[in-house]
Design brief:
By secondary structure, the chain is mainly α. It is 72% helix and 0% strand. The chain has 19 helices and no strands. Helix 3 (48-74) packs antiparallel against helix 4 (82-109), helix 3 packs parallel to helix 7 (189-228) and helix 11 runs antiparallel to helix 12 (412-438). The chain is globular. Residues 1-21 and 444-500 have low confidence and may be disordered. InterPro entries: Otopetrin. Its main location: membrane. This is Otopetrin 1.
Length: 577
């Protein structure tokens, strides 16, 4: 009976208020756990690959919006005007300024924490070169402001706001490149990834705007030249001059000087976008401490032949540029023929130099550097990608020469040789640069280690102390065999290769500095108006004016970027050899 009543009491306690309160507390705990799990899932770090893909799509669509506006603007219709494009680009620059300011403020608050930095991203000499290009871009903005002041009564205010915002954007971006481009971001990765990719595609859009403005200027000059020669059936460019008088006497100087500064502004933005792309790839990356170290700079004795030949190439290029610009108005065929003869000689020398560099690498057994390096990977991809423009242009010229009749210009065979050499030169130079970037030179520590652990001692009659320890069962008689006095012991192959490494490095440095100066020369010519592809008329007869002009508008900017990027890569090779 007592047991039964006890059971009844237990059963009653199960449904008593105390037990119901405990069950409600357990259910509330379950709800708290559910909400905490939901909070964790919502605030959890977004998967890196998804964030990378999403941010890349965001940047690509930004670029495509801007390019769509540019294509509509190229038709000179009444619906889309230059003010609309500049307003869109100005808004993108302001967004980038806000992001850079937020990033720098956050870095300032975390000054006590030492951030991880990629030693290969944005070397000091690249940032110094970009600073010089930025100064020229600021001069260009000053000319734009002066132009707006002269015509402020009849042009949109956007044309005055744009250069001011661009100048502020340039100054802030150079500061960001100097102090933060090496940062490896590990906090707020998704937000920072969108900020960096926004900066990348903003600079790409500014590059596209500069390329199209420069191309329009060259096309107008080309149409004017053809009209003077009697080609009246070509459509003339639309005049975009303001419909009022300038209030100052220097407006024409401002508008003319802009086009001489466009090449520097274009190269500035494309290089900044490449550096920011490396920063974007470094977000969330785990650095390899062994490969992420700075190489000490070494002296370069024996540099004589390479710099002398490079300066000769540079001087000849400037001479060709001046003579071409003077002669193309009077005798286009003579000017084009002179350029192709010069190009054949220059490209032949560059092919021989690059081939000699590859031969030196075959003779010198330097190990390959297989470590992760986003900067080097991007350099390789940009070299190969930017080569496509000039290759397309060259093969179009080859097709035009093959389809030309007997009445075609006499320089067509020189053009054929020039085009084929241009394809070959870029192939061989790309091989030389890529192999140089992926070769790892032997450190002094590696050489020392080789000497300590080799069987043959480094000095005559001295026993190698690395083998002096007597092993189990070893006798002093056996140990004598390690002496250099035993003449039947041969020198290892590795030691033979390290006998004269200095001479091979001198050859590589001379080759690199020569190619460096040649690429600068081949950048100067098209950047400042020496573009025989517009003036020869050979390709235009085969492909038509519209198609050939479209090919040139795509190929020439890519070729200009290739030459300047080759200059940067060759300087890196020069420091590495």
């Amino acid at each position: 009976m007592v047991e039964h009543s006890g059971l009844d009491i237990m059963c009653l306690n199960k449904y008593s208020p105390a037990s119901s309160s405990s069950s409600s507390s357990s259910s509330s705990n379950a709800e708290k756990k559910l909400f905490s799990k939901l909070k964790v899932s919502l605030t959890k770090k977004y998967p890196q690959k998804n964030a990378e893909t999403l941010s890349a799509q965001y940047g690509t669509n930004l670029l495509l919006i801007g390019v769509s506006v540019m294509l509509a603007l190229a038709q000179h219709g009444p619906a889309v005007k230059k003010e609309h494009l500049l307003a869109f680009i100005t808004a993108l620059m302001l967004v980038q300024l806000v992001w850079m300011l937020c990033y720098m403020i956050r870095r300032e608050r975390e000054r006590g924490l030492v951030p991880e930095r990629d030693a290969h991203a944005g070397t000091s000499w690249i940032r110094g070169g970009l600073t010089m290009l930025a100064l020229l871009s600021l001069i260009m903005d000053a000319f734009r402001i002066g132009y707006f002041v002269g015509y402020h009564s009849c042009i949109s205010a956007v044309l005055g706001v744009y250069p001011i915002v661009h100048a502020l954007h340039t100054i802030s971006q150079v500061h960001f490149l100097w102090f933060h481009i090496k940062d490896v971001i590990k906090k707020y990765e998704t937000f920072e990834r969108f900020g960096v990719i926004h900066a990348v595609f903003t600079n790409l859009l500014l590059w596209c705007n500069g390329v199209m403005s420069e191309a329009e200027h060259f096309l107008n000059n080309h149409r004017r030249r053809l009209t003077a020669l009697g080609y009246a059936n070509l459509s003339t460019g639309v005049c975009v001059c303001p419909h009022c008088n300038c209030t100052t006497s220097v407006c024409s100087m401002f508008s003319t000087s802009l086009y001489y500064l466009y090449p520097f502004n274009i190269e500035y933005h494309i290089f900044v976008s490449a550096m920011l792309l490396v920063m974007w790839k470094n977000i969330g990356r785990t650095l390899d401490l062994h490969s992420n170290r700075k190489r000490p700079s070494t002296r370069s004795p024996g540099l004589l032949l390479g710099p002398m030949l490079g300066l000769l190439a540079l001087a000849s290029s400037v001479t060709v540029l001046v003579v071409y610009l003077m002669q193309v108005e009077k005798s286009p065929q003579a000017a084009v023929s002179m350029f192709y003869c010069y190009g054949v000689v220059m490209l032949s020398c560059m092919c021989v130099a690059s081939g000699a560099g590859l031969l030196v690498y075959r003779l010198e057994a330097w190990p390959m550097d297989t470590g992760s390096n986003p900067s080097r990977t991007l350099d390789t991809e940009l070299l190969l990608g930017s080569s496509l423009g000039s290759w397309l242009m060259s093969w179009c010229s080859v097709v035009a020469v093959a389809a030309a009749g007997p009445s075609s210009p006499s320089f067509r065979w020189t053009c054929l040789v020039y085009s084929l050499l241009l394809v070959l030169e870029k192939c061989v130079q790309n091989l030389f640069i890529v192999e140089s970037l992926y070769r790892r030179r032997r450190d002094p520590d590696d050489t020392l280690a080789t000497e300590v652990f080799c069987v043959t001692p480094p000095y005559d009659g001295i026993v190698n102390r690395g083998y002096e320890t007597t092993l189990e069962g070893e006798t002093p008689k056996n140990r004598v065999a390690f002496s250099r006095k035993q003449t039947d012991v041969t020198l290892p192959v590795g030691n033979r290769l390290n006998v004269t490494p200095g001479r091979k490095r001198q050859i590589l440095k001379n080759i690199t500095i020569f190619l460096f100066m040649c690429n600068i020369s081949l950048w100067i010519l098209p950047a400042f108006g020496c573009r025989p592809q517009y003036d020869s008329g050979l390709e235009q007869e085969t492909f038509g004016y519209s198609v050939w002009t479209t090919v040139l508008n795509l190929a020439i900017p890519m070729n200009l970027f290739y030459r300047m990027h080759s200059v940067a890569s060759l300087f890196e090779v020069f420091r590495k050899v």
